[in-house]
């Protein structure tokens, strides 16, 4: 996310014929990338992170004139765009380790991010399937079915 944010900002600054090095030194693009990265589910595909970051920097930040000119937080604009565009991927969080049936290791997590499957052939649905995923015993489900 950070690399794509820095590259997107450098590209826009070059096109606007502004000083790239001086503007990148304020680290606002880096902060945008980091904020977006921590708000996205951990096993989201890599291209979603790049797409959200590029949108955040180019549209939500630089289109309004750059640092301090944007009315909204660019990282959260990128998050909202991803949430509207890819609702299933953006709401696919892993269950807590205490109730997780399948806890992916580092290599499995990297493989899910880049290919969509673990080394053993499991996918995101397999990793999310836990106790709560089977029973759906949540207060919201109880509220939904009782109304």
From TrEMBL:
Pfam families: NQR2_RnfD_RnfE. GO terms for biological process: transmembrane transport. Keywords: Flavoprotein, FMN, Membrane, Phosphoprotein, Translocase, Transmembrane, Transmembrane helix, Transport. InterPro entries: NqrB/RnfD (IPR004338). The keyword Lipid metabolism does not apply. The keyword RNA-binding does not apply. One of its GO terms (cellular component) is plasma membrane. It comes from the Bacteria. Coiled coil: none annotated. The chain crosses the membrane at residues 45-64, 76-94. PANTHER family: ELECTRON TRANSPORT COMPLEX PROTEIN RNFD, ION-TRANSLOCATING OXIDOREDUCTASE COMPLEX SUBUNIT D. This is Electron transport complex protein RnfD.
């Amino acid at each position: 996310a950070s690399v794509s944010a820095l590259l997107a900002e450098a590209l826009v600054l070059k096109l606007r014929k502004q000083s790239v090095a001086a503007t990148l030194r304020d680290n606002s693009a880096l902060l945008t990338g980091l904020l977006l990265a921590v708000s996205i589910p951990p096993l989201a595909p890599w291209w979603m992170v790049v797409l959200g970051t590029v949108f955040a920097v180019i549209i939500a930040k630089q289109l309004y004139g750059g640092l301090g000119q944007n009315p909204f937080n660019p990282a959260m604009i990128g998050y909202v765009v991803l949430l509207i565009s890819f609702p299933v991927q953006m709401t696919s969080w892993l269950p807590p380790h205490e109730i997780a049936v399948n806890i992916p290791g580092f290599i499995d997590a990297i493989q899910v991010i880049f290919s969509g499957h673990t080394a053993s052939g499991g996918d995101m649905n397999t990793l999310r399937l836990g106790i709560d995923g089977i029973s759906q015993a949540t207060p919201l489900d109880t509220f939904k079915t009782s109304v």
